[in-house]
Amino acid sequence: SVSAAMAGPWLALWALLPWLAPACAGRPVPVFRPCTPLITQDCVPGRFVECNSTAPGRRRRFPPDAFAGCTEGLGAVHELEEVIIQFTNGDPAGGGRCLEIAVRIGECWGWDTDGSQYNCMGLCGPSCQLLDSPVVCSNWAINCLRHDVCSYYYDSFGGGMDAACGYAFNEARKDYLVPCLAYDRCTLKRFNTFGEVCAADTEASRFAQHAAGTEFRSM
After folding, report:
1. Which listed residue, 78, 128, 158, 161, has the most CB atoms within 10 A of its CB?
2. What percent of the chain shows pLDDT beyond 70?
3. Contact 63, 93 (CB under 8 A)
C-alpha cells in the first residue's frame, strides 16, 4: 500500500485530472454556472430566483418539500431533462426563504468558494463518479439535485448538520444509499463520470452543457 505521505501528491493530482483533461484537449470551459451572493465571477446572474417566478412550460417543478425518492418514480430524473428545483434556507417547515432554479440534469458548475466541486448536478454523492467501471455505479435523484443546488448557493458544509441545507442532505441520503448495482431504477447509463457528463460529445452531455444563455471562454 502507499503511505499517507506518498498518497497526498497523487490524490491532489487525481483531483485535478478531470479538469486538466478537457483543458489539455483545448475544450471550451462552460461558464453558465449560476452566480450567488458569494460566487460573482465566471457565472450567470439571475438563474436563482424567488420560488414560483419561473414559467414551468413543459418542465417539472419540484417544491422544496417534495421528497419522493428515486425509487418512487416522481423523484427519478432522466437524461435530456430540465427541471425547476426549489429549496429553502433550512427545513421547509420552518418557513425559510424559498429559491428556485431551472437546471438541466448533469450541469457542471466547477468549484465553489471553498474548493468543493459541483459537477454532474443531480448525481448522488460528491461531484461526478470517479471511475468508469462495471463494478462502480451512481444514483441520480431530485433529492440529490436539491441538495447540490442548495449547498452550492449557501456554500454549505457539515452534511445533515448544516443549518441551511442539512434537511436536503438527509433526504438525499436515502437515494444515495439505494444499492445501484442490484437495483438500477435510479441510474443513468454511461452518464456518470466527468468525461461522460461534462466533457463528452454526446446528446445528453451537450444538453447539460449548453443551457440557455450559455457563454464560453477558452482556458
Report:
1. 128
2. 81
3. no
Task: At 214, list the grid cell.
Answer: 450559455
Residues with Cβ within 8 Å of 10's Cβ and at least 6 positions away in sequence, in order, are 2
pLDDT at residue 92, rounded to an integer? 96
* Distance set, CA 53 to CA 23, 33, 92, 97, 167 (Å): 36, 19, 18, 13, 23
What average pLDDT does range 73-82 have in this prediction?
A: 92
| Type of residue numbered 78 | H
Name the nearest CA neighbour of 207 among 105, 114, 130, 139: 105
State which amino acid sits at residue 22: P
The amino acid at 113: T
The C-alpha cell that represents 51 in the structure block: 420560488
Grid cell listed for 93: 417547515
CA 50/CA 154 separation, integer angstroms: 15
Cα 69 to Cα 139: distance, rounded to the nearest angstrom:
11
Q: What are the grid coordinates assigned to 186, written together?
A: 435510479
Contacts of 60 (CB under 8 A, 6+ apart): 81, 83, 84
pTM: 0.82
Rounded to whole angstroms, the Cα distance separating 198 from 82 reads 16
Average pLDDT over residues 140-157: 96
With a pLDDT cut of 90, the percent of the chain lying above it is: 61
Average pLDDT of the residues in 118-124? 96
98-104/49-50 β-pairing: antiparallel
| 16/154 Cα distance (integer angstroms) | 24
